[in-house]
Each structure stands twice: as structure tokens, then as C-alpha cells.
Design brief:
Blueprint lengths: L12 H38 L6 H10 L1 H4 L3 H7 L3 H52 L6 H24 L5 H19 L3 H11 L12
Length: 216
């Protein structure tokens, strides 16, 4: 990623597109895994680390987790590397006012849950605004990120249904392990492609993977 700060978009647009696609894909997978864990096992995690007296925090954790994919984005970094800080500052300024307005209104009616929703709204705005700015100004093509996030949503729903309808009585640790495996396998089949594997091999210095179950 740092190399983008040393090159121009005009002469190296493909490198910006590559960084945008690969980083967003990695961040989307990680963030949606965290969302899956927080929503499906938020109660168990709260009880494990903080005991049952923090039961009311479960819904707050689950609401805030919805905003994790909005936080895990490469959009602002790409805008900065393009030397468009004024545009990014305007987006952040609007986000600041959205945060204030949503906090005042939602906390009044919904208390702590409203504050959690306000966080999701604020980061959601920044996520969509930064990516919209990049797309409208034709710095990157966002078709790839739309596909990636669509697949992550489908995989999350699949994991949710499997947890709720197929193994509702299973011990949560065993259930989490199985859901994690399913999440990983579905991503290998439908999201991660040969080029992604090549990049990961270069990053971690792995000569080859033992199986080829990823999408070509």
C-alpha cells in the first residue's frame, strides 16, 4: 500500500485498482467473519468474559458489529494516496455532523442502543461516500467490491441459517468452529480466486498450497 504514495494515478491506474480490489477483498472477508461471530455468538462472548450481569450489552455489541465492514475499508487511504485530502476532509466533516445529529436524536429515544446505531450510520456514510467519490471520479472501478460484499452478505446469511436451523443445540464452541470452517470454505469457493492466492503466497512466502479449492 505505501507504494501508491510514490506513484501517479495517471500513469499507474492499474496499480491503484489492484490495491483497491485486493485490500477491500481481504478486509471484507475479515470484517464479515467478525460480524458473523459477534451476531451469532455475542451472548456467549459477553457471558464468557463479563458474566451475565452485562446481558444488556449483547444487543449493543451486535448492533456495533454491523458497522465493522464500514470501518474495514481502504477507500480513505486510496483518496489520501491520490493527494485528494480536501475531498476526504469534507467527507469526514459531513460525517461529523451526521454523528452529532444521529446521536442526539437516537440516544434520546433509544439510549445506548441508539448510540450504537449512530456509530453504524456515521461509519456507513463514510464508507459509501469515499467509495462513491472514487467511483464517480473514475479513480477505481467498484464492481469488484460490490460483488465481494454481496458474496459476504450471502455467506453470512448462510452461516446464520445453518447455526439457527441445523445446529441450534450444539455447544457454542463447537458451533463456532464449524461455522468458521463453513465461512472459510464458502469464501475459498466463491470469493477467493487464483490471483488472490498468488498474492497471498508472495506476501507470506508460501511456495504452494496443498489444495486447489478456490475459484479460478
Amino acid at each position: 500500500m505505501p507504494y501508491l504514495y510514490k506513484i501517479s494515478h495517471k500513469d499507474n491506474s492499474s496499480k491503484f485498482q489492484f490495491a483497491f480490489d485486493i485490500y477491500n477483498k481481504c478486509l471484507a472477508i475479515i470484517s464479515f467473519y467478525l460480524v458473523t461471530g459477534a451476531i451469532l455468538y455475542g451472548k456467549e462472548v459477553i457471558y464468557l468474559f463479563f458474566s451475565g450481569k452485562y446481558h444488556d450489552s449483547i444487543i449493543i455489541l451486535q448492533i456495533i458489529s454491523i458497522g465493522i465492514p464500514f470501518i474495514f475499508t481502504i477507500g480513505p487511504a486510496i483518496i489520501t494516496s491520490l493527494d485528494r485530502q480536501p475531498a476526504l476532509s469534507r467527507i469526514y466533516a459531513i460525517g461529523f455532523f451526521i454523528s452529532i445529529i444521529s446521536n442526539i436524536s437516537l440516544i434520546y429515544f433509544f439510549k445506548s442502543e441508539g448510540a450504537a446505531v449512530s456509530v453504524v450510520i456515521t461509519y456507513g456514510f463514510i464508507f459509501f461516500a469515499t467509495n462513491f467519490y472514487l467511483a464517480v471520479n473514475k479513480f477505481v472501478n467498484v464492481v469488484g467490491i460490490i460483488k465481494t460484499y454481496s458474496w459476504q452478505l450471502i455467506i453470512f446469511i448462510s452461516c446464520y441459517c445453518i447455526k439457527a436451523f441445523i445446529m441450534p443445540e450444539m455447544h457454542w464452541i463447537a458451533s463456532l468452529a464449524l461455522v468458521s470452517i463453513i465461512f472459510a470454505v464458502l469464501n475459498l469457493i466463491f470469493v477467493i480466486n487464483k490471483n488472490d492466492v498468488r498474492v497471498l503466497r508472495e506476501i507470506f512466502g508460501i511456495k504452494k498450497f496443498p489444495m486447489k479449492i478456490y475459484k479460478k
